[in-house]
Specification:
alpha+beta; 5-stranded antiparallel beta sheet
Length: 458
């Protein structure tokens, strides 16, 4: 640990009413209707799963759903293809396996919290205290279903790029450990409010939640008067005293936990895996000595307990199961939603389109940008702007440059010409990129008009 002195389905049974609103968060109590049935999202109550627990989840997903599991961009587990009759059975199987699922307000911590010696402070105790305070508060708080809180102790796999309503990030102000309170957005985009010592953190967050509850069920942190909030808090130092976070590495790959310990991060290809594949992968990891799994942002899971000499074999096995186990895997830089067949709103096969990008334009995927492939304008896989977004359009596809899937496309591409259009875009970057320039920098310099002309030449 680093110290600061160092650098609705009407047939649903009661309690299982399906959620039709995009603003709702699917859970065992409120599954969401999708194109392949009902979907539930699970967050373990503890930091992660044992291998046997996650194997039990895979078994339950296969028995009760269509056998497809997902890890979301935020690191939550989803089970697809359920029905009104099988959701209660799924809940029973998870309970029988002794797996405790977190419910209510989402309070999220980094995937290596409490394990990473480079973090300033372990955020798990503070998260547990805040969760208990929210549960105990009376009268109960009425909060937006997707409202989220991040408590980040720092460390290598921090949550700087994950959006949240309320952000708490450990930092240093002189020789003091403090918590930076910020609202609405990622680390870079959020509004910094105050630097608080730990005893002041939970009262401040509860006051914010009380304000949101009084504003109505749909209120989010962006609706709060930040200036008024700031005036009511005593900051121990100027909020700019805490340095900005350096970019976090991709979850996929080997991450050191001090001198002797390491952890292997593996990502699901485009966020999905079949229950059978997950089960056999977990069996292989157990043979190699793995003990626990933690879910991670970027559609990933962290494999704990492997001995250093087993990492090469573990990465090879992960690759053989179609997983992303290396930081240079081009699939690390594509965000794709479930797509047609799995989502009722989707109009394109997002995974096939994503694979087309990988095959036709490897030069774009140099790590400087993420390509977002969205089945509709909602942009569930990446609601924020991307350098390049490929989304569904009436004639096939729309290309959005430096924007979200909801933005009007800069160019339209017919379904039969998507591969050639992507090839032309890759050729544009290859031909026009300056020495040492990244794909993102090149595209930014060229601008939307040049990119539009290139992809529409055919």
């Amino acid at each position: 640990m680093t110290m600061c002195t160092a650098p609705v389905d009407e047939r649903m049974e009661p309690g299982h009413r399906s959620s039709m609103r995009r603003g709702a968060c699917p859970s065992l109590a409120t599954p969401m209707i999708t194109g392949d049935g009902l979907l539930v999202r699970l967050r373990p109550a503890g930091p992660g799963f044992t291998l046997s627990e996650l194997t039990a989840v895979a078994d339950a997903a296969e028995a009760c759903g269509n056998g497809i599991l997902e890890i979301t961009a935020r690191g939550n587990l989803q089970i697809r293809g359920l029905t009104a009759e099988t959701v209660p059975r799924l809940a029973a199987k998870i309970a029988d396996a002794g797996i405790e699922i977190a419910e209510g307000l989402a309070i999220e911590t980094p995937p290596l919290a409490g394990l990473d010696p480079s973090e300033i402070v372990n955020p798990l105790p503070l998260a547990a205290q805040l969760r208990a305070a929210v549960i105990a508060y009376r009268p109960s708080l009425t909060l937006a279903p997707k409202l989220s809180i991040l408590i980040d102790g720092g460390g290598q796999l921090h949550l700087g790029d994950v959006t949240a309503d309320i952000r708490l990030r450990a930092g240093c102000a002189g020789d003091k450990t403090v918590w930076l309170l910020a609202l609405a957005g990622t680390e870079a985009a959020s509004r910094r409010i105050a630097l608080l010592e730990e005893p002041s953190v939970i009262p401040a967050v509860i006051d914010i939640l009380k304000t949101l509850s009084a504003m109505g069920e749909g209120a989010r942190a962006r609706d709060i008067d930040a200036t008024l909030l700031q005036a009511g808090l005593v900051s121990v130092a100027d909020v700019d005293a805490v340095e900005p976070l350096k970019p976090a590495p991709n979850s996929a790959g080997i991450h050191a936990l001090g001198v002797e310990r390491k952890v292997l991060g593996v990502g699901l290809a485009f966020g999905q895996i079949r229950a059978q594949e997950l089960r056999t992968f977990l069996e292989a990891m157990e043979i190699l000595g793995a003990t626990d799994i933690r879910l991670a942002p970027g559609h990933a899971l962290m494999v704990l307990g492997l001995a250093p000499e087993r990492f090469a074999a573990a990465q090879a096995l992960a690759l053989g199961h179609g997983l992303r186990a290396f930081p240079l895997d081009p699939r690390n830089h594509i965000a794709a939603c479930a797509g047609v067949g799995a989502c009722a709103s989707a109009l394109i096969d997002t995974r096939a389109t994503a694979q087309t990008v990988i095959d036709a334009a490897p030069g774009l995927l140099d790590g400087s940008l993420a390509v977002h492939v969205s089945g509709c304008a909602k942009g569930c896989a990446k609601p924020s702007a991307s350098a390049l977004t490929i989304t569904a359009a009436p004639i096939g596809y729309g290309l959005v440059v430096n924007g979200p899937a909801s933005a009007p496309p800069n160019a339209y591409i017919e379904e039969k010409t998507i591969r050639s259009a992507i090839e032309r875009l890759e050729a544009l970057v290859r031909q026009r990129k300056r020495a040492g320039e990244s794909a993102r920098s090149c595209l930014t310099r060229l601008g939307a008009d040049v990119i539009t002309t290139a992809v529409q030449q055919g």
